[in-house]
Design a protein that fits this description.
Layout: E1 2-11, H1 15-26, E2 29-36, E3 41-48, E4 51-58, H2 64-71, E5 76-84, H3 87-96, E6 101-105, E7 112-115, E8 125-128
Parallel strand pairs: 1-4, 5-8
Antiparallel strand pairs: 1-5, 2-3, 3-4, 6-7, 7-8
């Protein structure tokens, strides 16, 4: 069962500069920052008046965010994250329905899988049942 949008993922050149802008202009608050060496990225969960955003900065050119930044000349909307009740069950249902699922990461505190953009009208959709921190 889907519960709603968890967060909106945005690829940025510099998390600190983007966060500074969001704080000063809109009163945003950083809730959590995590480095993912295996993905070559740093992520920051930022809350803006009840809506969470994931700011993602590449730490190397070969990770998904590094490649995205190169292809999109500076970043932008990367994905929409959808909160669900049971990640494996939803993934199984979606795959049986013909959607291509990639990046299944069921172990660890950040449990996610992604609907491939070719299966979702060009949109990368992240599925999670652990979700981002809430304010």
């Amino acid at each position: 069962m889907v519960k709603g949008v968890d967060h909106i993922g945005i690829a940025v050149q510099n998390i600190d500069e983007t966060l500074k802008l969001l704080k000063s202009a809109f009163g945003a608050e950083e809730l959590k920052r995590t480095e993912y060496p295996q993905l070559q990225q740093i992520s920051s969960i930022v809350n803006l008046k009840g809506t969470n955003f994931e700011l993602m900065q590449a730490t190397g050119p070969d990770g998904a965010i590094g490649k995205f930044m190169q292809a999109n000349k500076g970043g932008g909307l990367h994905h929409i994250s959808v909160m669900c009740e049971n990640l494996e069950a939803l993934v199984d249902t979606l795959e049986k329905g013909g959607l291509k699922i990639v990046g299944k990461m069921y172990e660890g505190p950040d449990r996610v899988a992604f609907i491939h953009p070719k299966s979702a009208q060009g949109l990368l959709v992240e599925l999670t049942d652990t979700g981002s921190p809430k304010k």
